[in-house]
Amino acid sequence: GNSVTQMEGPVTLSEEAFLTINCTYTATGYPSLFWYVQYPGEGLQLLLKATKADDKGSNKGFEATYRKETTSFHLEKGSVQVSDSAVYFCAPSEGFGNEKLTFGTGTRLTIIP
Amino acid sequence: DTGVSQNPRHKITKRGQNVTFRCDPISEHNRLYWYRQTLGQGPEFLTYFQNEAQLEKSRLLSDRFSAERPKGSFSTLEIQRTEQGDSAMYLCASSPTGEQFFGPGTRLTVL
Fold it and tell me: CA A17, CA A7: separation in Å to the nearest integer?
């Protein structure tokens, strides 16, 4: 099965700082890649996705590019806000039409004003 | 609201009791997934259905766990003879194809 290595947290940044959360994966198939976010007291929400190599997923100012050669899907945002404080999960699907997700351990992000 | 719903939201039970959780997916989503999330960890896959067929089960799903989706709509997850190690958040997700939409989860506490 797949595995995910995600940047350990917690991460604390000041408002308007640049954010990178690293994610690398191993997969036997050709997975789609996802970032999910869990805001305090809420359920998991899809943040962005990419389905093939070199695709860039983007949403709410966040971006991540599917890098097949380095098996990475790093999450970036140019200027974070307090409202971005949450736990972020990287998750590849199984591939070959199997959408089962393998989640990383999550990275807790705290943005201070 | 047409999102994924789960009931109950919280369940406290004593060790050895049986519990059942329900998941109502987004209408017309033919795929339904169950995951378990413990504190400080990411969700772990348990099982998934395509319509009423259970297509995959994780090794995490011991014989005390059973899941059904009898008419290809809602699903139930039953845990028999609960143990303290079963305490976790149980998440349900549905998908038409591609991305999964998650419900709020059922938090189980086994005393």
Answer: 17
Residue B104 · residue B9 · CB < 8 Å: yes
Q: Give the model confidence (pLDDT) of A7-23 as tens digits.
A: 888 999 999 999 999 99
A51 close to B (CB below 8 A): yes
- Which of B91, B97, B98 has its CB closest to that of A44? B91
Listed by number, the residues of chain B in 35-94 with a beta carbon closer than 8 Å to a beta carbon of chain A are 35, 40-45, 48, 56, 91, 93
Distance CA A88, CA B40 (A): 12
Q: Does B25 touch chain A (CB under 8 A)?
A: no
**Binning pLDDT at 50, 70 and 90, where does residue A105 land?**
very high
Asked if A3 is an interface residue toward chain B (Cβ–Cβ < 8 A), one would say no
The three-point CA angle B49-B51-B54 to 5° equals 30
Give the closest residue to A75 by CA, choosing from A92, A100, A57, A93. Answer: A57
Distances B65 to A25, A98, B24, B76 between C-alpha atoms, Å: 29, 22, 19, 11
Half-sphere exposure (CA, 13 Å, Cβ side) for A109? 29
Please state the rounded mean pLDDT for residues B64-87. 95
Total residues belonging to chain B: 111
Q: How far apart are the first and last CA of chain A?
A: 41
